[in-house]
């Protein structure tokens, strides 16, 4: 009895080993039926909200767009192949992200890997992308460390700038308004005590002080705060014309509602992540008009308008007006780089991404030192669009409306 | 002979990184990581039956220590500091709380993990004004694997020694009946404190060793409560009162989770929840105990026949 089961076991193990060996044989280009794209994104957990708005819809849209157009042409192999996706849920855990990339690279043998959402997961994934030589297109990571990270991981590309970009742009814009006499010298800042809020307030506080603003309120609130009445009540008595909150999505909405309820309507009302979300106008009602925030789009761009339409048709909602278009553009760059190289050589594609100029929905794009430096930094809701007021390369899409319209009281 | 087999097994496991690719090695790190945590958890919670959900508090403290000190001193010294900090925290916490029993202890330990997370966040936000920290150490996956393997071996050796030493017997008496234990003259709090601290130091080291794998450390990354829950369920599945019980829970469960997340990425959480319920209902004392019961019944039948 024992001998038999042992033999069966050994046979099973032998078959298993053979199957594994066969599965890991290299596939030849002639046998290819598709370009394999793999990604592990946060479908559950703390990052699911952000990933569900800025990352996953754009991955779906890009694959859909490319496949509808017939696929990507690989001239060196003489074929045009469609994209085939392998996707996992990293459950918002850094350890899962790392292991999912290892699985995609060595078990699923994908040709290219797209990163997860957020600064933390992109940094956690950096060494693993680097080890396997995959280009990493970080479309949703905001980090001032990008120049150093590029030195460390040659195939990493950073598309969303750093905290200083956004903070300095905001301060520059406010200086102009102050010098024009539109606003007074007093500023209140409330920041969420988490990555984004701290990064931005760390950059903004000294920039405001250097510009001669008086910071009458500069405090953080804990992640997960739901009652903003104390903050709004305190700030509304300080006589500020400018209220800045480096906030996260649920707070961004709650701060707006609380400010309306308390009838605290400063001339400049600036909020963080979430202001550019398509649901913001639904949350704020008529009061979304004139609210400023991080990000922005070019309202006159036909490419962006067409992108909004395709996105809405496929996903059922419009994209956000900050990281979405940037993420989609990073994928367009990947697709064009693959076509130019003409095969699936990862390092050649990475070299092309680093050096080439690309046609994207953001216009013509050329990366500088592996970073996208042409960014919308400050936006404002005007006529139903979150238009860019400030751009790192200096061309504003619209003039800011200051003061913003007074709140319409909640009925 | 009895020492030869474990040593041979250890040597064989240590050679694994030379023969396997990145993904199996990643699996190995995951299995060893949870193996260490589950074994360390069972060190204290097995005999005393105190369900602790503080695993991730110590795990996170270890990871943060590495993030803060990595640039300031050589790596072995960083690990030593992490162990010391874990020990001090465990002693403080243990002194304050090990008089609690039952559900109060469970709730307190869960709160402790959250408290550690909020304290670190508060400190980083208000004092250093950075929330994420970068860990750039020249430590590859194979180094992490070897360190975890070493830690697991030491933890198992400690568990083996404790189960045979006086302190192990004392702990079992406390777990069975604290009143009897105190009448026997066992220093209940002192004994529990010693084991709680030992288990906490191992957990702290497990976090410290794995920190370089993530590059970027944030409170929400390293104080993830799922780690505490998975540790408990693994130890319970294997059987927290056996030397290799927690390990026997960690290996199959980890592989199962991995298989589930690779094949059912959209239903993972639902299946996981059902699995937890099934384990608690069907195998309350772990698979090893269930196996013993099964073989005992088999033998009884034979004897009767």
From TrEMBL, chain A:
<dbReference type="InterPro" id="IPR006311">
    <property type="entry name" value="TAT_signal"/>
</dbReference>
<protein>
    <submittedName>
        <fullName>Twin-arginine translocation pathway signal protein</fullName>
    </submittedName>
</protein>
<feature type="signal peptide">
    <location>
        <begin position="1"/>
        <end position="29"/>
    </location>
</feature>
<dbReference type="InterPro" id="IPR028082">
    <property type="entry name" value="Peripla_BP_I"/>
</dbReference>
<keyword id="KW-0813">Transport</keyword>
<dbReference type="InterPro" id="IPR028081">
    <property type="entry name" value="Leu-bd"/>
</dbReference>
<comment type="similarity">
    <text>Belongs to the leucine-binding protein family.</text>
</comment>
<dbReference type="Pfam" id="PF13458">
    <property type="entry name" value="Peripla_BP_6"/>
</dbReference>
<keyword id="KW-0029">Amino-acid transport</keyword>
<keyword id="KW-0732">Signal</keyword>
<dbReference type="GO" id="GO:0006865">
    <property type="term" value="P:amino acid transport"/>
</dbReference>
<feature type="domain" description="Leucine-binding protein">
    <location>
        <begin position="35"/>
        <end position="384"/>
    </location>
</feature>
<dbReference type="InterPro" id="IPR051010">
    <property type="entry name" value="BCAA_transport"/>
</dbReference>
TrEMBL record, chain B:
<feature type="transmembrane region" description="Helical">
    <location>
        <begin position="24"/>
        <end position="44"/>
    </location>
</feature>
<feature type="transmembrane region" description="Helical">
    <location>
        <begin position="268"/>
        <end position="291"/>
    </location>
</feature>
<feature type="transmembrane region" description="Helical">
    <location>
        <begin position="244"/>
        <end position="262"/>
    </location>
</feature>
<keyword id="KW-0812">Transmembrane</keyword>
<feature type="transmembrane region" description="Helical">
    <location>
        <begin position="143"/>
        <end position="162"/>
    </location>
</feature>
<feature type="transmembrane region" description="Helical">
    <location>
        <begin position="193"/>
        <end position="211"/>
    </location>
</feature>
<keyword id="KW-0472">Membrane</keyword>
<dbReference type="InterPro" id="IPR043428">
    <property type="entry name" value="LivM-like"/>
</dbReference>
<dbReference type="GO" id="GO:0015658">
    <property type="term" value="F:branched-chain amino acid transmembrane transporter activity"/>
</dbReference>
<feature type="transmembrane region" description="Helical">
    <location>
        <begin position="217"/>
        <end position="237"/>
    </location>
</feature>
<dbReference type="GO" id="GO:0005886">
    <property type="term" value="C:plasma membrane"/>
</dbReference>
<keyword id="KW-1003">Cell membrane</keyword>
<dbReference type="Pfam" id="PF02653">
    <property type="entry name" value="BPD_transp_2"/>
</dbReference>
<feature type="transmembrane region" description="Helical">
    <location>
        <begin position="51"/>
        <end position="70"/>
    </location>
</feature>
<feature type="transmembrane region" description="Helical">
    <location>
        <begin position="76"/>
        <end position="96"/>
    </location>
</feature>
<keyword id="KW-1133">Transmembrane helix</keyword>
<protein>
    <submittedName>
        <fullName>ABC transporter permease</fullName>
    </submittedName>
</protein>
<dbReference type="InterPro" id="IPR001851">
    <property type="entry name" value="ABC_transp_permease"/>
</dbReference>
<feature type="transmembrane region" description="Helical">
    <location>
        <begin position="103"/>
        <end position="123"/>
    </location>
</feature>
């Amino acid at each position: 009895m024992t001998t038999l089961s042992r033999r069966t076991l050994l046979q099973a193990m032998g078959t298993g080993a053979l199957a594994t060996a066969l599965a890991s044989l290299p596939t030849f280009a002639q046998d290819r039926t598709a370009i394999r794209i793999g990604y592990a994104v946060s479908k559950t957990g703390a990052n699911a909200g952000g990933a569900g708005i800025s990352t996953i819809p754009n991955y779906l849209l890009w694959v859909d767009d490319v496949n509808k157009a017939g696929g990507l042409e690989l001239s060196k192999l003489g074929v045009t192949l469609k994209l085939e996706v392998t996707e996992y849920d990293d459950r918002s855990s850094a350890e899962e992200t790392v292991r999912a990339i290892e699985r995609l690279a060595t078990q699923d043998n994908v040709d290219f890997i797209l990163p997860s959402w957020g600064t933390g997961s992109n940094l956690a994934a950096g060494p693993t992308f680097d080890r396997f030589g995959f280009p990493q297109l970080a479309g949703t990571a905001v980090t001032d460390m990008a120049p150093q990270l590029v030195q460390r991981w040659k195939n990493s590309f950073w598309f969303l700038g750093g905290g200083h970009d956004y903070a300095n742009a905001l301060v520059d814009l406010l200086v102009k308004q102050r010098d024009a006499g539109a606003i007074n010298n007093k500023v209140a800042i409330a920041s969420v005590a988490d990555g984004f809020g701290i990064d931005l307030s760390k950059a903004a506080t000294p920039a405001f002080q250097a510009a001669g603003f008086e910071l009458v309120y500069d405090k953080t609130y804990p992640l997960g705060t739901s009652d903003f009445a104390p903050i709004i009540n305190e700030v509304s008595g300080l006589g500020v014309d400018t209220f800045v909150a480096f906030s996260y999505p649920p707070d961004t909405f709650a701060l707006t509602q609380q400010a309306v309820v308390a009838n605290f309507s400063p001339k400049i009302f600036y909020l963080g992540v979430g202001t550019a979300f398509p649901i913001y106008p639904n949350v704020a009602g008529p009061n979304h008009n004139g609210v400023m925030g991080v990000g922005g789009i070019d309202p006159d761009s036909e490419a962006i308008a067409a992108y909004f339409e395709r996105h809405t048709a496929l996903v059922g909602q419009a994209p956000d007006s900050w990281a979405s278009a940037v993420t989609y553009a990073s994928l367009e760059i990947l697709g064009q780089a693959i076509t130019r190289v003409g095969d699936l050589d990862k390092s050649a594609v990475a070299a092309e991404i680093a050096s080439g100029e690309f046609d994207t929905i953001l216009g013509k794009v050329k990366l500088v030192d592996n970073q996208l430096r042409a960014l919308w930094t400050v936006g404002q809701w005007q006529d139903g669009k979150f238009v860019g007021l400030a751009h790192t390369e200096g061309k504003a899409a619209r003039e800011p409306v200051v003061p913003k319209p007074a709140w319409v009281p909640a009925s | 002979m009895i020492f030869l087999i474990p040593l041979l097994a250890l040597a064989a496991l240590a050679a694994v990184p030379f023969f396997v690719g990145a993904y199996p090695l990643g699996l190995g790190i995951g299995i060893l990581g949870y193996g260490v945590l589950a074994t360390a958890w069972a060190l204290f919670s097995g005999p005393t039956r105190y369900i602790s959900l503080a695993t991730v508090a110590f795990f996170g403290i270890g990871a943060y220590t590495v993030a803060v000190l990595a640039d300031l001193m050589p790596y072995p010294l960083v690990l030593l500091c992490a162990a010391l900090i874990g020990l001090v925290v465990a002693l403080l916490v243990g002194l304050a709380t090990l008089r609690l029993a039952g559900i109060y202890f469970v709730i307190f330990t869960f709160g402790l993990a959250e408290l550690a997370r909020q304290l670190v966040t508060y400190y980083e936000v208000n004092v250093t004004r950075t929330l994420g920290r970068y860990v750039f150490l020249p430590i590859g996956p194979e180094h992490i694997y070897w360190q975890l393997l070493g830690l697991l071996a030491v933890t198992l050796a400690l568990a083996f020694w404790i189960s045979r030493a006086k302190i192990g017997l004392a702990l079992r008496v406390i777990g069975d009946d604290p009143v009897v234990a105190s009448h026997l003259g066992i220093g209940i709090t002192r004994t529990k404190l010693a084991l709680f601290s030992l288990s906490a130091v191992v957990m702290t080291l497990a976090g410290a060793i794995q920190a370089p794998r993530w590059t970027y450390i944030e409170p929400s990354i390293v104080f993830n409560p799922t780690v505490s829950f998975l540790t408990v369920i693994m130890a319970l599945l294997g059987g927290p009162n056996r030397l290799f019980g927690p390990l026997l829970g960690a290996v199959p469960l980890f592989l199962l989770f991995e298989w589930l997340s690779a094949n059912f990425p959209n239903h993972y959480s639902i299946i996981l929840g059902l699995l937890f319920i099934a384990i608690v209902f069907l195998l309350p004392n772990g698979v090893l105990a269930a196996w013993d019961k099964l073989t005992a019944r088999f033998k009884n039948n034979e004897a009767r026949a």
